[in-house]
């Protein structure tokens, strides 16, 4: 049940109505770090619309070390859609957006070496809703490459995830080594094989 008036808050409902013995509110970045069993590290949440990077030392964020990049899984899905349209494999149609999500989630991966991958990528056959077959090949690794090359999705190259992560860690002193060794990924966009 929700508060009936402004005086009745969440705490009152939780403690008095539901008899909750304790409550701890935290940022999801902090929870990801804790779930990995670490107190010091860089938590990177690769979400649908944004990517958030937050370094922690003893579960405390250092001021001015939080960064939010305004691209995420939705940007990669849109880029995958554009890749197919650029190759004239598909018409512009909003009903295919869910197909792009499905292709992204089930066949896309991060290549260890982007340039070498062109010669060794396996094709993936996807059945569209109208029973036509769509052959997915280099699109499988081109779309997730936008995480490392944001210019592919029309973002500034300085917004590359590794560059931003490196820039934030350099703001620390003695903790740098531990931060570099404790980078925790979370969110749907972190599920790409090879990431």
What would you call the structural class?
Answer: alpha+beta
Distance between the termini: 41 Å
Hey, roughly how much beta strand do the residues contain? 15-25%
SSE ordering: HHEEEEHHHEEHHHE
Number of DSSP-assigned strands: 7
Largest sheet: number of strands, sense, barrel closure: 5 strands, mixed
Helices and strands in order:
Blueprint lengths: L9 H8 L10 H8 L5 E6 L4 E7 L2 E2 L5 E3 L3 H14 L10 H11 L6 H4 L6 E4 L5 E4 L2 H4 L18 H9 L6 H5 L2 E4 L9
Parallel strand pairs: 1-7
Antiparallel strand pairs: 1-2, 2-3, 2-4, 5-6
Task: Describe this protein's structure.
With 195 residues, the protein is an alpha+beta fold. 32% of the residues lie in helices and 15% in strands. It is built from eight helices and seven strands; from the N terminus they run H-H-E-E-E-E-H-H-H-E-E-H-H-H-E. The chain has helices at residues 10-17, 28-35, 73-86, 97-107, 114-117, 139-142, 161-169, 176-180; strands spanning 41-46, 51-57, 60-61, 67-69, 124-127, 133-136, 183-186. Strands 1, 2, 3, 4 and 7 form a five-stranded mixed beta sheet that branches. The chain has a two-stranded antiparallel sheet with strand order 5-6. A hairpin with a 2-residue loop joins strand 2 and strand 3. 25% of the residues are buried.
Task: List the main descriptive attributes of the protein structure presented here.
195 residues; 5-stranded mixed sheet; two-stranded antiparallel ribbon; 32% helix; 8 helices; alpha+beta
């Amino acid at each position: 049940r929700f508060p009936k008036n402004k005086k009745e808050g969440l705490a009152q409902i939780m403690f008095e109505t539901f008899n909750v013995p304790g409550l701890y509110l935290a940022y999801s970045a902090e929870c990801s770090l804790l779930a990995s069993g670490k107190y010091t590290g860089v938590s990177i949440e690769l979400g649908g619309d944004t990517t958030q990077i937050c370094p922690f030392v003893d579960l405390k964020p250092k001021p001015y070390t939080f960064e939010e990049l305004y691209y995420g899984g939705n940007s990669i899905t849109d880029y995958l859609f554009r890749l197919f349209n650029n190759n004239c494999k598909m018409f512009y149609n909003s009903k295919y957006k869910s197909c792009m999500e499905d292709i992204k989630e089930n066949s896309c991966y991060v290549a260890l070496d982007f340039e070498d991958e062109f010669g060794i990528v396996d094709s993936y056959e996807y059945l569209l809703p109208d029973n036509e077959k769509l052959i997915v090949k280099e699109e499988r690794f081109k779309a997730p490459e936008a995480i490392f090359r944001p210019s592919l999705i029309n973002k500034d190259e300085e917004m590359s995830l590794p560059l931003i992560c490196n820039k934030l860690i350099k703001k620390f002193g003695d903790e740098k080594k531990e931060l570099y060794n404790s980078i925790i990924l979370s969110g749907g966009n972190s599920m790409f094989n090879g990431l």
